[in-house]
Amino acid sequence: MTGATLMLTDGAQVVLRRHGNPDGPRVLVSHGTGFAVDGFSRMWRPLCDEFDVITFDLRHHGLNPPCDPMSIDAERQNLDMAEVVAGVAEHFGARSAAGLFHSISALAALRVETLTPGTFSHLVLMEPPAPPPSGHKLCEAFEAGRIALAERSARRQCEFASIEELADKYQSRKAFSCFQEGAARDLADAILRKSPSGFSLRCTPQAESRFYETNHDDGLFDRADCVGCPVLMLAGRNDLAHAGTPAQIAVELAHAGGYDYAELARATHMMPLERPQTVAAITRAFLQAV
Questions:
Q1: 2-289 topology per CATH
Q2: Mean pLDDT of successive 10-residue segments in the chain (290 residues)?
Q3: What is the pTM of this model?
Q4: How many alpha carbons fall within 13 Å on the CB side of residue 29?
Q5: Do the Cβ atoms of 91 and 4 come closer than 8 Å?
């Protein structure tokens, strides 16, 4: 593995790490709000035998130095994504790059691709939480969920006595009941850092809340078909019956953009920790086929 630290235009820093086959097709990988890309290693490591895999965390997440939480908004996330794509080319050599992105990173990637078609060679997107426009059948339910997440994440427990304490909390919650064995420990280890009292969240509750709070409609549904690359949308089947979930949003976006679409059985929004090998296999097949 090799790495580089990218300085973004507002002074925040993003740690880029290169894994796998440097001569293979390039794939950029990132994660959703509150998580860290190393927590999803079961998903992206299977690609390292063939692909030039570049992993990075969102600002104020994972291995990145903390930044001002008030710098977080949707426009800045789009800039971050575009600057990461350019920074990867600068540090590791210019070539086309595909993207494998989960949740809010998937949303930023799709926003950038629809605004600047051809930014990516291919996109595999896991349930980007795109706010539907006013009047859309999912708008009211999505907005209620978004606001609830912003409020709940702001109150999230930040300090833990051990990695196991957080892993046990994941394992005890019904929402995470589909995790593979050991995946909760992987995730907890990736999102915690050592602190004087034990361990603390790398992404603070205030920062996590900002990602939800500032996620407003920017017209993505109306320009969903303005992409310059093949797009595969993935949705977890377990959430498709629940109103306003990112799974339902994924279905609507795929239809609006004319994207390829696949559902994963026995999976929720947390599919990188529930069906990681399946996501890797689907990604490999998609990148090889188109």
A1: Rossmann fold (3.40.50)
A2: 93 97 97 98 98 98 96 97 98 97 98 98 98 96 97 97 97 92 97 95 97 97 98 98 96 98 97 98 92
A3: 0.97
A4: 29
A5: yes
